[in-house]
Amino acid sequence: METTRLVSLDWAMKRLLRSKSNFEILEGFLTELICKKENDEISDENLKKFLKIEEILESEANQEHREDKFNRVDLKIKTSDGEIIIVEIQFDSRYDYFQRMLYGTAKAMVEHLNLGDEYAKIKKIISVNIVYFDLGIGKDYVYYGSTNFVGIHQKDRLELSTRQKKKFNKKSPHEIYPEYYIIKVNKFDNKAKDSLDEWIYFLKNEKVKSNFKAKGLNEAKKTLDFMKLKDDDKLAYDRYVENRRNEMSIANTKELDLKYSREEGKAEGIQEGIEQGIEQGIEQGIEQGAKQEKLEIAKNLLDKLDVKTISQITGLCEEIINNLKK
User: Fold this and answer.
1) Would you tell me which of 105, 146, 170, 217 could form a disulfide with 178, CB atoms 3.0–4.6 Å apart?
2) With contact defined as beta carbons under 8 Å apart, do 216 and 26 qualify?
3) Domain contains 200
């Protein structure tokens, strides 16, 4: 039921999907994700109205940095209605990834506002994040976030005025503010229950089942088939996969080393504590034994010598010796 071998989306975004002839693949994926956040069926009419890619913009991902190759891929897309979509793939775990998402949208917003432009010209930013680690705590594998203003007292939702709707061509404030999508690929159970799941299955397994019908997947199956690549692209992809494995192995090794170092340090600390305790116990026992012996000598000398002389012989203070008389 599956194709042979497909290249991963992160590599394809670098090499294949920047071509206008392949825009249909990205359009299909983004349409399935954005139009179906509430599990609505996508009508042909809605698809025509909605997402069409006008161009792929220059972004950090176009640079050949080491970190770009193995940890993340940014793809900045301009749609036909002027909105900006950022697609980012992240393999390695990052505790500050939420802040990174925020930084990415803020930077894109500033980059596309010319000096002297009014605020009304700020571009709508949609941030799509495909992560291969467990970001935050949650049971789902696809999350959506937007900005809404709700009354503290009346609990009503703040909406745009009629003039604002005409000016901005928006229906609600959340359409002005950035929107975020997070796909936690590793949380997906490989059971494709709808067309969006079919895309997530591909993201996780780099395979497309023959019965999948999600928009853009049929084109992806044709374009991303490893066996149909040019020879130099095959070699480049094999190198990329090997490099990615090495980077992930290094990251996992560092994580395990840190874990084992902590465990070993804890075990060594416990053992050292035990040894120190035993040593201190022996020392205390010797000291107590010596003191007891001095007390016995002092008792035997009480009837024969004065307190001062006994103190000089035993090293005990006169107070202790006087107490032995009681």
Assistant:
1) 105
2) yes
3) yes
Q: Which residues, in sequence order, are CB contacts of 185 under 8 Å at separation 6+?
A: 130, 131, 132, 141, 200, 203, 204
Regarding whether 302 and 222 lie in a shared domain, the answer is: no
12 near 224, Cβ under 8 Å? yes
pLDDT (tens digit per residue) in 193-249: 888 999 999 888 888 888 888 888 888 888 887 777 777 777 887 787 777 777 667
CB 243 within 8 A of CB 11: no
Residues 125, 108: contact at Cβ < 8 Å? yes
Distance CA 196, CA 198 (A): 5
> 47 and 121 share a domain?
yes
Task: Please give the model's pTM, rounded to 2 decimal places.
Answer: 0.69
**Domains in the chain, number:** 2
If you average pLDDT over each of 13-27, 114-128, 174-188, which comes out highest? 174-188
CA–CA gap between residue 321 and residue 295 (Å, rounded): 8
Do both 312 and 182 map to the same domain? no
C-beta of residue 80 within 8 angstroms of C-beta of residue 52: yes
- Three-state DSSP at 290 gives helix
Share of the chain above pLDDT 90, in %: 17
| Residue 266 belongs to a domain | yes
**Same domain? 17 vs 145:** yes
Question: 19-56 burial, b for 16+ CB within 10 Å, e for fewer?
Answer: eeebbbbbbbbbbbbbbbeeeeebeeeeeeebbebeeb
Tell me the residue range of the domain where 318 lies: 257-324
Query: d(Cα 307, Cα 325) in Å, to the nearest integer?
Result: 10
Q: In terms of domains, do 34 and 91 share one?
A: yes
Q: Are residues 142 and 273 in the same domain?
A: no
Residue 86 pLDDT exceeds 60 = yes
Domain-embedded: residue 139:
yes
Phi/psi of residue 171, each to 5°?
-100, -30
How far, in Å, CA of 164 to CA of 172, rounded? 9
